[in-house]
Structures are given as structure tokens and as C-alpha cells.
Write a structure and sequence with these properties.
This protein is of the alpha/beta class. Among the domains are: 29 residues; 107 residues, Glutaredoxin (3-Layer(aba) Sandwich). Helix content is 37%, strand content 21%. It has a 6-stranded mixed sheet with strand order 2-14-13-7-8-9, with helices on one face. Strand 10 and strand 11 form a beta hairpin.
């Protein structure tokens, strides 16, 4: 049962509510509170920018930046080879996880040291150059043609678009891989290439290492 104190509290509350209602009567219509949706606000803003011409300007700036990045990607500054040097590079890797065959059997378990040259031979040369330097561009094109257009020209800097347009040969750009917390590296990083031009190849079919040759173009001219 409800005690006297509870009844008194309810009575006072009811009385207070009625008193407030009498003291502040309705003086006009009550309207529903309605806010514009986020999409509507964005659409209106875009329409305003379009009408003022600002949207077209922003689109052009975005397109120009994208085209410029494609034509002139950020590269890596390497030193110019000042002597003819040759060194060996071991491409072996330690597997971080199991390597499986198509039928599901394990080919190599995690922790195994694998040399890719034991599985497949390295039949082409990789020619690393700084695409901003004319002498290196000419040298790469010369080697590429001598190989029957089989060698791969890789620019560590410069514009691959302009290079291919001028020389009518295919070229690649040494882009970084990684990100999302991992260190960004290039193919030149992985092969420990420090100077250009550098030529990477497998000298003999049975070699289990790659030969990296730094070429001093000033010596070739003599």
C-alpha cells in the first residue's frame, strides 16, 4: 500500500505540474523540430560551388595533380657510379609462413631458407638508371636494344612517361612498396643498389647469386 508520505509527494507533484501549465499557457503553434540531413547540406554546398565555378577549379586542380604524379612520380636519389664495380647478391629469403603446392601439400615449411635461383633462372637483365640523366638514358636504351628488347629498364628517378615517349621503348618505375605501418622500400632497396647505372643479372646459369654491376659511363667514353 502507498503510505501517506508517498501520496503527499504525488499530490504535490501533480499540483506543481498544473500550476506550471497555468502559469505558462500555449501562446502559439508548436512545430516539429527538423534539421536538414547531412547529404542535403553537402549537396547544397556542392551546388553553390558549382554555380560559382569553384567546383570546376577544384576538379581541374585534382586532375592536374594526378597527371603530374603519373608523369613525374617521386623517386629515389642515388649517387652516380664513379667506378666500374661488380659484386654478388644472394637473393635467398627465409619464409615467414608455409609455402604450399597446388594440391595442398607443404612445399617449404616456415623458417626454410629458399633461394629463388634454385627454382627459376634469372634470364633477363635489370638496368637501373636515373631517368633525369641523358647519358644514363642512352646507355639503357642501347643495352635494351642489344638484348632484343628483353632487358628491363627501371627508372629510380625521372619521368617514365617522357622516357617511353621519347625513346619508344618500355620502361618501369621503381615504386615503393609497403605502408600501413611497414617501412616503404623499393626494388633498388631490396637489391641493395646504391648507384646508377647498375645492371643486375645472373652471370652463369648455375650461379646461386646475382651479379650487380655498377657502370662508370665516363670510362666507357674513353
Amino acid at each position: 500500500m502507498m503510505n501517506i508520505r508517498s501520496k503527499l509527494a504525488i499530490g504535490l507533484l501533480s499540483f506543481s505540474t498544473l500550476a506550471i501549465a497555468d502559469e505558462y499557457p500555449v501562446i502559439g503553434k508548436v512545430y516539429e523540430i527538423k534539421e536538414p540531413s547531412l547529404l542535403e547540406a553537402i549537396y547544397e554546398k556542392l551546388e553553390a560551388k558549382k554555380a560559382s565555378g569553384e567546383l570546376d577549379k577544384l576538379q581541374k586542380e585534382f586532375t592536374d595533380r594526378a597527371v603530374n604524379t603519373f608523369k613525374n612520380p617521386p623517386g629515389t636519389n642515388l649517387s652516380i657510379a664513379d667506378a666500374n664495380r661488380e659484386r654478388k647478391f644472394d637473393p635467398s629469403i627465409v619464409l615467414q609462413r608455409n609455402l604450399y603446392m597446388p594440391d595442398g601439400r607443404i612445399l617449404y615449411p616456415a623458417g626454410t631458407k629458399v633461394n629463388p635461383l634454385q627454382i627459376r633462372k634469372f634470364s633477363k637483365r635489370l638496368i637501373f638508371i636515373d631517368g633525369r640523366i641523358e647519358e644514363q638514358r642512352q646507355y639503357a636504351v642501347k643495352l635494351h636494344k642489344e638484348s632484343g628488347y628483353l632487358d628491363k629498364i627501371i627508372l629510380v628517378n625521372g619521368s617514365p612517361y617522357e622516357f617511353m615517349k621519347k625513346n619508344k621503348v618500355r620502361a618501369f618505375f621503381d615504386q615503393t612498396i609497403g605502408g600501413n605501418g611497414r617501412r616503404k622500400i623499393t626494388l633498388a632497396d631490396q637489391l641493395e643498389i646504391q648507384k646508377t647505372p647498375s645492371v643486375v643479372y645472373q652471370k652463369n646459369p648455375n650461379d646461386l647469386y646475382l651479379t650487380i654491376e655498377e657502370v662508370n659511363l665516363n670510362e666507357i667514353k674513353k
